[in-house]
Amino acid sequence: MKKLLFTLLIIPFLGFAQEKGIVFEHQTTWDKVKAKAKATDKYIFVDCFTTWCGPCKYMSSNVFPQEKVGDFFNANFVNLKLQMDQTKDDSDDVKSWYQEADRFAKDYAVRAYPTFLIFNPEGELVHRIVGGGEADDFIAKAQAGLDPETQYVTLVNKFEQNPTDADLAKKTAKAAMSAYDQDLAKKATARYIDLVGGEALLTAENIQFLAQGATSSTSPAFMLIKENMQKVDELLGDKGRKSNDILASVLSNEIVMPVIRNKNEEVDFTALKERLAKEHPYVDMTSILASIKTQYYFSKKNWPAFKDAVNDYIALNNKKVSPNALNSFAWSVFENCDDAACIQAALNWSKQSLEGNEEPAFLDTYANLLYKSGDKETAIKYQEKAIAKASDSEKENYVATLDKMKKGEQTW
Predict the structure, then answer these.
(1) Kind and range of the H or E run holding 309
(2) Burial track 131-155 (b if 16+ CB lie within 10 A, e otherwise)
């Protein structure tokens, strides 16, 4: 009987604890969600997520369960989670939403994750938020979706109704970029360029804005930067991105990445570079191709080619490669490659990362590479140095590695 009484007492407590965060609808349909919103005069909040999306998982684990987040969303919205991908482990409830998820992706241009859609009590889309955020910031973004003056759709309607308002076109373009509404971003950016035109467009603030709107080599923003590269560099100054970098980034996404993603063929980087030089001779793609090359061979797990690509990248960028990048390159080789030439190259990168910057993690990488290369004595000295500089939370792992080194055991 005491056990039964305890169970009866704890059930209400657990129910109360679960209500601290956002309460999402389950075992329902879109029509039922809309009907509930209309009956309760609440807006609808839809979390469009995927199972593989890191920021989506962060929002679900760390933001949505917070009491203040639950208080705001439960008071103002009927809340729904909509899984946009399909997996073999999906429940019947998730499967029942497959068709609706496909429709959402098409009708509401859901292309990035997480995307959060807000509908009014009548079931009409009024606002969109792309990307997560911490609790207070996210509540503020959702609050904007409740006010007709700040709703995304309101801004879009004003844009459509005022085709000669340049400031509104610029504001709409920026909002569309943030919302990953690519079609509208292109349209609004093109309108702004057309309305302002000429020398008036060539200001530092405008160039920074237009750089975001240069989404293809045929876009008006791209063409404007291309035709004024020297002036753009003057406006952005030494601390800003160079015009070449802006244009190279666009061409990378447009031409290089589709080739990289074609898993059926090995990438011929020489041919790719020649194609780019022929089609876009005004842009130097050397640096960005060198960076992409390191990523490509890492993904292919071709460590000798990765080693050569990293060496080329470092040589090309001289001292501009960050210690973090050098350490990451070196650790990738340590974990994955036994080739002596690769390990020696990684030792060089790791040693360079330590120049004036003896971070414990970098020292640990260097020690592990020394150990893998066969220099046990020096490896132990550097591992002891890493331990001496490490925080209390880091020490345990470093000490365990040191013990393995002293015992002659593998550390990889």
Answers:
(1) helix 303-317
(2) bbbebeebbebbeebbeeeebbbeb
From residue 199, alpha-carbon distances to 215, 228, 232, 401 in Å are 22, 10, 12, 62
Q: Nearest 5°: phi and psi at 115?
A: -115, 130
State the maximum Cα–Cα separation within the chain, in Å, rounded to a whole number: 85
**CA 238 to centroid of chain Cα atoms:** 26
Coil, helix or strand at residue 41 = coil
Copy the structure tokens of residue 24: 């999402």
Instruction: Assign 75 to helix, strand or coil.
Output: helix
* CA-to-CA dists, residue 3 to 8, 15, 390, 401, angstroms: 9, 19, 49, 48
The model carries a pTM of 0.71
Q: Which domains does the chain have, with CATH numbers?
A: 15-150 (3.40.30.10), 163-241 (no CATH), 310-407 (1.25.40)
Supply the DSSP string of 132-154, one letter for each residue.
Answer: ---HHHHHHHHHHTTSTTT-HHH
* Separation of alpha carbons 145 and 152, rounded Å: 7
- The half-sphere exposure of 108 on its side-chain side, counting CA atoms within 13 A, is 28
293-330: per-residue pLDDT in tens? Answer: 999 999 999 999 999 999 999 999 877 899 999 999 99
